[in-house]
Write a structure and sequence with these properties.
Blueprint: E1 6-12, E2 16-22, H1 32-36, E3 47-51, H2 55-67, E4 71-75, H3 78-87, E5 92-98, H4 106-116, E6 121-126, H5 129-134, H6 136-141, E7 144-147, H7 152-162
Parallel strand pairs: 3-4, 3-5, 5-6, 6-7
Antiparallel strand pairs: 1-2
Helix pairs in contact: 3-4
């Protein structure tokens, strides 16, 4: 809904279900930087810590990062991410941090990450545009922001800027 799409479901017992995904189209041109961002001859090395409570999104982001040449460490909870950073402080170049997580929010996780490594680069990510206004202060504490859903080129561009 946030991005102008919808999902409908029609189901009949013993007949199955039909899911319809409605995705908005656009005639907008893809900016040159988005087309070429992931194919630039940039030497990408190092380890990125990915923090997201949703397993499919966590794994997708890790796969994208590995396809760009980075190693990845993943965490589904903020407290785990803080401990992983502490254990890998010499390896981790940056953190991709989900804004909304259970148990420990993105803000509290960021606070813990900065306590362990004040200079660690943090790329904040969120799929909820409604949160953006209420989290301006959190966004300012991070080094960069990326709106979900993002693709490989957008992620590559953000990390190239960040690192």
């Amino acid at each position: 809904k946030t991005h102008g799409g919808a999902v409908t479901v029609a189901s009949q017992p013993s007949q199955g279900a039909t899911f319809t995904l409605l995705v908005p189209s656009t005639d907008a041109a893809v900016p040159e930087s988005r087309r070429d961002g992931a194919t630039k001859k940039v030497r990408r090395r190092g380890t990125i810590l990915v923090v997201d409570d949703e397993e499919p999104l966590l794994q997708m982001c890790a796969r994208l990062l590995r396809s760009l040449g980075y190693e990845t460490i993943t965490a589904r909870r903020g407290a785990v991410a803080i401990e992983l950073l502490r254990a890998n402080i010499d390896r981790v170049k940056a953190v991709v941090l989900d804004m909304t997580m259970p148990e420990m929010s993105g803000a509290k996780t960021l606070e813990g990450l900065r306590a362990v490594s004040p200079g660690v680069k943090v790329l904040l990510s969120s799929g909820y545009s409604a949160e953006l206004q209420s989290t301006d202060s959190l966004r300012r504490k991070c080094d960069a922001f990326i709106q979900k859903p993002f693709d490989r080129a957008a992620l590559a561009d953000k990390l190239d800027e960040l690192l």
